[in-house]
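User: My collaborator sent over this chain with a note saying "see what the structure looks like." That's all I know about it. Can you take a look?
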Amino acid sequence: MTAAPTSGFSAFALEPFPEVQPGDDLAGTITGVLTRTSTELQHGDIVVVASKVVSVSENRRVDLATVTPGAEALDLSARTGKPAEVIQLVLNESVSHFVAGGRGPIIARHRLGFELTSAGVDRDGPDGAWLLPSDPDTSARALRDALTKATGVPVAVVIADSDGRADRRGATVISIGAAGISPLRTTQHAGKRQEETFTDLIAAAAGIILGQRGRGAPVAVLRGIAHTTGDEGVAAILHHRP
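Assistant: Without extra context I'll predict from the sequence alone. Here is the result:
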């Protein structure tokens, strides 16, 4: 479907945001922040949530002491300088990988179909690591349903994850889960038609606010962006679907 035009939008973080603990009700935590900050969601708002807090709430932490590196992980560890246990988790979570540059990063195709730096495995201090949510689209739908029920306002949810690129330094932000918003939009101009990975554009816009590494604002709200409602999820646009 051809997208409605968006000539401007606003974006803001939900903060201060408490530290999420394993097993926490993430939707309840978000609505709690909305209440404490006297913030009201509006019809059509897009709530962008960092994948890390989704993983924490779903208790996706792995104790590195329970991981036994194999020969390939040990070899990659020697080449890249990354801990062998973490690399073994990357291998466990992925179906293929390659090393970009002499010492990384390791770009892996996650078993869910995403191509991500380190298969989305995120270090948690010296002895742990976080895996991606087990099904990000399902997580997004659950959050969307709970937030809509709690606030009485139809919203969309996008789960965003930090990601590096093989061709350059630094990190960007992409979408790995979505609900209430179609992941693609089509734009047309001067007879030319283009499909855009719309939820990635949403995630990148929110990423300016969410930041990286300890920013402390894991949830942002984007307001005023025209979008088509849909529950296909990000999995629907992947070349390698799980």
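A starting point for your reply to your collaborator: The helical segments are 26-36, 51-57, 71-80, 84-93, 136-151, 198-210.
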